[in-house]
Write a structure and sequence with these properties.
Rossmann fold; alpha/beta; 38% helix; 8 helices
Length: 252
């Protein structure tokens, strides 16, 4: 299998997230003047680091299974003078206990659901239940998760789990949050430009590899096929149909 460049070289965040929307999320989390901030599925921790910059009294913990991303985040924390206030660690987020004033969970609900290989519906309820258990009354949560922005089509579901019930609508997601111990302060959704930028950054590693290797390299055809499949899945499949909702939640 070819070795590809890490996603943090081409993406600021490991989600469809513009600078303007990131500022909005940071302001919400830092506005609660947290002493502790937890980021589940933190990747390289960019959003967590920005919250810590905006909340200078806070300490942060980021958890992700990807050792390479976590290591990149540690280097960035050190560069920005935040290493003494943040711990980025590669471990299973299901082991996290205790209470945090603010929590970030963006696209990581699968942590508490069935393995993605089982191709089951996303278990939003299990995620929201677990997240509520990590927050005190009044604690703040940024919860962002996949939704159907439009009725799913066979072309959209095929490269995902292949089922219409994998995701829910944004209205259903808000209702689930309200039924699992949260008040909803704000709801917004990633736009088409954010998705295009994310997908472009996500697949840039293939273009990087092809530019750095000879066209007749033994792995070149495989890399071209990987790039083609992902472009087809997005551009010819779930673009404009699968969305990402961002919820500002308060534990009640």
């Amino acid at each position: 299998m070819p070795t590809f460049s890490p996603p943090h070289l081409d993406l600021t965040f490991m989600s469809p997230l513009s600078e303007a929307r990131a500022e909005r999320l940071v302001a919400f989390l830092a506005g609660g003047e947290p002493a502790s901030v937890l980021d589940i599925g933190c990747g390289w921790g960019e959003l967590l680091l920005r919250v810590l910059e905006a909340a200078p009294e806070a300490r942060g913990l980021g958890v992700d299974l990807d050792e390479e991303s976590v290591a990149a985040g540690r280097g960035e924390a050190d560069r920005r003078g935040l290493a003494g206030r943040v711990e980025l660690t590669a471990r299973d987020a299901r082991t996290e206990t205790g209470s945090h004033d603010a929590v970030i969970c963006i696209g990581a609900s699968q942590v508490w659901g069935p393995d993605v290989s089982e191709q089951q519906p996303l278990d939003y309820a299990a995620a929201l239940t677990a997240l509520r258990g990590l927050l005190p009354h009044g604690g703040r949560l940024v919860y962002a998760e996949g939704i159907w922005s439009a009725p799913p089509t066979p072309a959209a579901t095929a490269p995902l789990a292949g089922r219409d019930d994998e995701l829910v609508s944004i209205a259903t997601l808000v209702s689930l949050a309200e039924r699992h111990g949260f008040a909803v302060l704000a709801v917004h959704e990633a736009g088409r430009d954010e998705w295009d930028a994310f997908e472009s950054g996500y697949t840039a590693c293939y273009a990087r590899w092809l530019a750095e290797h000879d066209p007749d390299h033994p792995d070149a055809e495989e890399v071209r096929a990987l790039a083609g499949r992902q472009h087809a899945a997005y551009l010819g499949g779930y673009r404009g149909i699968m969305g990402l909702a961002y919820l500002h939640l308060v534990a009640v």
